[in-house]
Write a structure and sequence with these properties.
The protein has 478 residues and is α+β, with helices and mostly antiparallel strands. The chain has three domains: 182 residues; 72 residues, Orthogonal Bundle (Helix Hairpins); 146 residues, Heat Shock Protein 90, CATH 3.30.565.10. Helices cover 69% and strands 10% of the residues. It has a five-stranded mixed β-sheet. The chain has a two-stranded antiparallel sheet with strand order 1-3. Helix 1 packs antiparallel against helix 2 and helix 1 packs parallel to helix 3. The two termini are 44 Å apart.
């Protein structure tokens, strides 16, 4: 079962991904800042501890002086240093608490007080006391060792914090980089997937295949674009159907007008001849009557020919296909119009490729097409010009191509789209407009194609493509 459509806009996706990455960066920055503050606090305590250790060392030196020289002034000096140390500790108490905690600070203060008390006891005892001396040395040693221990411990912690921060920052950097690449790749793929759909649809539309993009799952900007293209495709399809219908109606109009025009003249002639025959019947001799009937018979035959041509166009007879050399068919067709070419002073240039592959054709029908093209060319060039005929193989398309080129007056560009329409003629009353239409039907029945290029004042070129025969005796006309 498909999931719910994604309603999030691409802009929001990009913003959210950027916010996500930015949040990660802020968190890592905050972590680094906190660690840096902690390191600075530890370093600050180490500096304080170094000063304390220096004071404690001086106290121990004064202690030794007292025991060596029995100098009571040394006791006052120790007492003064203890008081100064306690004042210093009080001044930076908050920094020390942050670094080593309240418990360790209390222990430090306890050791200082105990050492201070022992100094007071020694000062108040006039006689030498071995037990008191030992206590004095022990308390001083404990104070010194505790201070040094804490200092060494904090230095080690600083190193640990720096090392862990370095590791965290290193892995965080790669994590952010991988996440950023993954998110960017995901969004890019989503965008590219939508673009590929749009590209595919655009290509289909350009080829006249008005498909739709099915299953539009997103309602982001690309979803809107694809929906718009689907709507455009549907509209183009409707317009195409309207255009095709309009062309059909236009062709039907041309066909009707052409049939009407072609039949009107002989019917009028028959009508006028019959009326005249009736009016003059008593005065006409037998020969005159036969003459009038001959005119009617000629006009009737003319009508029959028009109807036959129309039937041939609407329902071309089945082709009797056989393997043939198109060059041979071309030369036979030229012989049929050679006299016309000579009379019209038309020069012929042949460029027939040798060893052409055979084609499967109805030779008489293809001759009909070629003769029609030759006659049209002669009529376009007369009284003089050059008719160029070219044949060659298009191997990559399995086709044999025929070009019939004249140097006549050319066809106006606005007429080219209708040149194969039935009863459309550029010759005025001199043509029926069925020749090229019939030729078009014959070529299509041979699974080929015919096209025209023309430029006014330069000439016209008709190109016929016929499929190469591949050895099948049977021909599927479907």
């Amino acid at each position: 079962m498909p999931g719910p459509p994604n309603n999030m806009k691409i802009e929001r996706k990009i913003i959210l991904s950027n916010v996500f990455n930015f949040t990660l960066i802020i968190l890592i920055g905050f972590f680094a800042f906190q660690n840096l503050n902690l390191v600075l606090t530890k370093l600050r305590f180490v500096e304080i501890a170094d000063d304390l250790n220096a004071s404690f060392l001086e106290m121990r030196l004064s202690e030794k002086n007292y025991f060596l020289y029995k100098d009571s002034a040394a006791l006052f000096d120790i007492k003064e240093k203890i008081e100064n140390t306690m004042k210093s500790i009080e001044m930076v108490k908050s920094d020390i608490v942050k670094a080593i905690g309240e418990n360790n600070l209390e222990l430090l203060e306890t050791y200082l007080k105990r050492y201070s008390n022992v100094v007071d006891e020694v000062k108040s005892t006039p006689n030498f006391d071995m037990q008191l001396e030992s206590k004095f040395r022990t308390e001083g040693k404990k104070l010194r060792e505790f201070s040094r221990k804490i200092t060494d411990l904090e230095r080690a912690r600083v190193n640990v914090i720096i090392a862990s921060s370095k590791s965290v920052l290193f892995y965080s950097f790669w994590a952010i980089l991988i996440l950023a690449i993954s998110v960017s790749h995901f969004i890019s793929q989503k965008i590219l997937k939508s673009l590929r759909k749009i590209e595919k649809l655009a290509i289909c539309i350009s080829e006249g295949n008005f498909e739709k993009i099915e299953g539009i799952g997103s309602r982001d900007e690309f979803g809107s674009v694809m929906a718009a293209i689907n709507s455009m495709s549907e509209e183009l399809k409707n317009r195409e159907e309207q255009i095709i219908q309009s062309k059909k109606l236009a062709s039907l109009g041309i066909l009707t007008a052409g049939v009407t025009h072609e039949l009107t003249n002989p019917v009028n002639n028959i009508s006028m001849t019959a009326q005249t025959y009736i009016e003059l019947y008593d005065k006409l001799s037998r020969e005159d009557r036969i003459g009038f009937m001959g005119i009617i018979e000629e006009e009737t035959e003319r009508i029959r020919d028009i109807v036959k041509n129309l039937l041939d166009f609407s329902k071309p007879k089945e082709a009797n296909l056989k393997s043939a050399d198109i060059n041979v068919v071309m030369q036979k067709s030229l012989k049929l119009v050679q006299n016309m070419l000579n009379v019209s002073n038309i020069e012929t240039e042949l460029n027939l490729a040798g060893a052409l592959p055979p084609v499967l054709i109805d030779a008489p029908q293809i001759q009909q097409v070629l003769v029609n093209l030759f006659v049209n060319a002669v009529q376009a060039m007369s009284p003089s010009g050059t008719l160029t005929i070219v044949t060659h193989a298009v191997s990559d398309k399995d086709l044999v191509e025929i070009e019939v080129k004249d140097t006549g007056k050319g066809i106006p560009s606005e007429f080219l789209a209708h040149i194969f329409d039935p009863f459309f003629s550029t010759k005025g009353v001199g043509g029926t407009g069925l020749g090229l239409s019939v030729s078009y039907g014959i070529i299509k029945n041979h699974k080929g194609s015919i096209r025209v290029e023309s430029k006014e004042g330069v000439g016209t070129t008709f190109t016929i493509d016929l499929p190469i025969y591949k050895g099948k005796e049977e021909y599927d006309g479907t």
